[in-house]
Write a structure and sequence with these properties.
The chain has helices at 14-17, 24-32, 34-37, 54-63, and strands spanning 8-10, 43-46, 49-53. It is an alpha+beta fold and 66 residues long. The chain has one domain (7-63). The longest helix has 10 residues, at 54-63.
């Protein structure tokens, strides 16, 4: 498996990870709508907590830039 645990961050830290590009509210929207916006494949739920793969998020972000 090529993905390591270090590649995952708690979903609620996405705003910090993105250096403030996404506000707290927009981060919540992205996560809540992950099944519709294509972010879902980069998310994992473990023990009721949601984590986002940072490498996958970077790819998703680049694919969705307007």
């Amino acid at each position: 498996m090529s993905t390591f645990l270090n590649d995952y961050i708690p979903a609620n830290k996405l705003g910090e990870y993105s250096s403030g590009i996404f506000s707290s509210e927009s981060t919540k929207w992205l996560i809540r709508n992950r099944h519709r916006n294509g972010l879902h494949p980069h998310c994992k739920k473990v023990n009721g907590r949601l984590f986002i793969n940072t490498k996958g998020f970077q790819t998703w972000f680049e694919e969705h830039m307007a």
